[in-house]
From TrEMBL:
This is Conserved domain protein. Keywords: Signal. The keyword ATP-binding does not apply. Gene3D superfamilies: Integrin alpha, N-terminal.
């Protein structure tokens, strides 16, 4: 059972991501976009949060932690609507003001229309060092920042460019079981599909057939994980549907990927999604954070594939 705590007003207008920082002590980094700051929060009495530090950063929307050699703990920040990223070097939550800020232009051209959403740290070439991947929905691209070496310049590298649409996020998953990290890229505008990019094992990607999504309005959030039945599952929500895709263990990149879905009412605009085993039975459970509908979350417990079939048979609609 879950119980919602009180609203936390200290994050201000239009807060962005909340990141659980590494370490035994529970600390969180919050993108307080409306305050032009990132905040360090710790648990307070009665389920509250208290602020223990802050750092001025222009309109931060998304945050992610990464590791590069010589950088200590790194943090990537996405400023809303800007043509640059901010990387924090040697980040320490107890001494946040000492972090070095590195501004990285999204393009070598001035006044670029490139805009980043979430930055996803993942090692795509197997060298043990994170690449920082992100989508640009204004230029139909997926890009990455690679570790530049001790003195090198940090420049975006093009990973993929699509003909149309607005790529929204980048999810990492070993889709074909070869040990290399592949990418799933939801498209926020027409065509409403999830692009699939297969890794050759060296960080080079080849696009294969996209996955259709049952909507005519847009895609929102997605999560990927392997379940105890041996299948990989992509759990997603968009305007009009909650979906579950099932990948076989050794998917060849060509075979059709089966999908089951449940309708979502027009009053719902879900913002967050989780794919984890909540009840300890070994099966993945799916959580959809409510957006415009009633406060709270919608949970479907595993085994998800069978339960989505039951939801479809019962003509369930998430309202």
């Amino acid at each position: 059972m879950f119980q919602a705590g009180e609203r936390q007003s200290l994050v201000g207008f239009h807060p962005g991501d909340l990141l659980r920082l590494s370490g035994a002590r529970p600390r969180y980094l919050v993108a307080a976009e409306g305050q032009n700051k990132v905040l360090v929060l710790e648990p307070g009495p009665g389920g509250s949060l208290r602020q223990t530090g802050e750092l001025k950063v222009p309109v931060p929307r998304h945050v992610a932690s990464f590791r590069w050699p010589g950088w200590g703990d790194g943090v990537a920040l996405t400023p809303f609507g800007q043509d640059f990223l901010v990387l924090l070097k040697n980040f320490n939550a107890a001494r946040i003001q000492e972090a070095e800020q590195v501004q990285v232009a999204l393009s070598e051209k001035q006044h670029s229309i490139r805009r980043a959403e979430w930055v996803r740290p993942v090692d795509v070439d197997g060298d043990g060092v994170d690449e920082l991947l992100f989508a640009s929905n204004t230029t139909q691209e997926v890009l990455m920042l690679k570790y530049p070496g001790p003195e090198g310049a940090i420049k975006p590298k093009l990973v993929a460019k699509f003909r149309s649409g607005a790529p929204w996020d980048v999810l990492s998953a070993d889709l074909n079981g070869d040990g290399a990290i592949d990418l799933l890229v939801p498209n926020q505008s027409k065509p409403f599909v999830i692009h699939v990019l297969l890794n050759d094992g060296h960080g080079n990607f080849q696009e294969t057939a996209a996955l259709p999504f049952p909507t005519d309005m847009g895609l929102r959030r997605f999560a990927w994980s392997k379940d105890k039945d041996g299948f990989g599952y992509l759990f997603g929500v968009g305007y009009g549907a909650v979906t579950l895709y099932r990948f076989p263990d050794r998917w060849d990149g060509k075979a059709p990927v089966p999908m089951r879905s449940a309708p979502v009412g027009s009053s719902e605009g879900s913002q967050d999604i989780v794919l984890e085993d909540l009840d300890g039975d070994g099966w993945l459970d799916g959580v959809v954070g409510r957006g415009k509908g009633p406060p709270g979350a919608w949970i479907v417990y595993g085994p998800l594939w069978e339960h989505f079939e039951e939801l479809s048979a019962a003509r369930f609609v998430l309202n």
